[in-house]
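Cont'd.
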Amino acid sequence: MADTTAHKDEEQAPITERIPAVGWVWKNLFSTPLNTVLTLFSLWLIWKVGFSFVDWAFLKGVLFADSRVACREISPHGACWGIISERFDIFVYGRYPHEHRWRVNLSFILLIVALAPVLWETMPFRKRGLLFTVAYPFIAGWLLAGGLFGLDPVNTRNFSGFMLTLVIGVTGISLSLPIGVALALARRSSMPVLRIIAVVFIEFIRGVPLITLLFIASVLLAYFLPPGTDFDLIIRVLIMVTLFASAYMAEVIRGGFQALPRGQYEAAEALGLSYWKSLQKIYLPQVLRISIPGIVNSFIGLYKDTTLVIIIGLLDPLGIGRSLLSDAKWAGLAAEMYLFVALFYFISCFAMSRYSLYLERKLEREQAAEQN
Amino acid sequence: MNTEMQGDSIIRLVNVNKWYGKFHVLRNINLDVKRSERIVICGPSGSGKSTMIRCINRLEEHQQGDIIVDGTTLTDDVKKIGEIRREVGMVFQQFNLFPHLTVLENCTLAPIWVRKTPLKEAEEAAMKYLERVKIPEQANKYPGQLSGGQQQRVAIARSLCMNPRIMLFDEPTSALDPEMISEVLDVMVELAESGDMTILCVTHEMGFARKVAHRVIFMDAGEIVEENNPEDFFNNPQADRTKLFLKQILQH
């Protein structure tokens, strides 16, 4: 008897309650006629677009082929990823001389070594590792450009592809943080001259698009420099990108200083700590911690902005891709190339963004621990 | 040069005036503090009492008059300000501990970097003072993990680690929950009675004033209205403003 009533109850309960997912779908997607129509239309659209893309990119796509024609012979209506697989090396090394490519590889490997102590907090010998991190941009610069200590010089005009992105990105990121801190301090300084210089600099840089600065670097500087001086274009670009990122960084850091309670400054002063000691031991550790989301945000912006160098004739992965398109072998494969480059940037930026999120969560946990 | 003139005064304020914009916060303040003297300063909020003691270690600048601390006249000279701050400890209303450092690190930071004390020595001294404020067992915790009363005691220990000759307390118990006030006051009383430290304390804790102060100063509207020994100050106030103030705070 009891058994049958239970069975009856179960039957009477609407399906939307018995299975939560069904309930959710019903409530959110099919509750009204209009809702139903919109849902069906969206599904149709997703199917249409999504399936066509999957069909084009994967089902009918050709992974390996040595030209567009070869691709089309295999699959006339699919994507031709040959432009990537066949020319992957040129995306990475660009026009960097073949026989010296090991130097780029070594730089990549050393970059991982340099990043390790930053990312891995419990690493043995972390302090010494961080020293290497600080030295890395200079070591990599020497490795890539050569010309010192027996390394053959490589003309920086050949810096291109993914390695160029990395050169600009790493330089910009590693220099903009200290310069940004210095600018933020100058802007907060009680010395009027210092403050005015910082304000003018920051506001000027922030008021001018990066492209303009890059044009200044590539064209205008030549007028100011004495004739005959060959001031490396890459160096000029690095300076401009770094200055640009530093101005934004300065504002992020300044925000951090403002968020620090006034009592922290007073306590440090009352103890008789010097300005620089307080900065090093009390202000900066707290300010940098507060500013992490803003700092990483600036890094991501800077990293993506590196594509702008294409405007002044430098070949980043996007530039390399475009130059490939003008090759008769690969002409017409713009979609594949742009998708690949987009994916490359997405992976790098998404990784940075996730890392920032991880750091924030970790700091939140630490702060919670500091308070319990 | 004025060491002889000053006799055994350790702090002298001579005709000190200060303005915030147009607002006259300190009006002709004259104050002589003798070595080892303990002074309690009270008065309604906005009367300039905190500002006055903050001028003594130059967290605030005065615009007129002289402030002479331990024979050194306060000017813009950064070096002299540093010298004075080394000898003058300060405890704040909001504790102002460094949240990213442990209790022990809070205490050893200034001795190590200002006094150049070796780490081990600084830590031993810090533990001694943490014992004195009765929280040696919290040494490795972070300030955020402590109660307000404990934090304020750490702040006292942090100041003591610099072996200051003068201690300034700026409303040390005002931000505390009532049940924590006494643990901080006990430490302060013990500190006052055990040593020859010069103490200036801004507070409304009248029991504390009666117990340890040599002199109570009443300030209102930027002026020192009245000063006297605690006995006479509380039993026989002279100025009307003092009477009113005492009536207000003793009502509760």
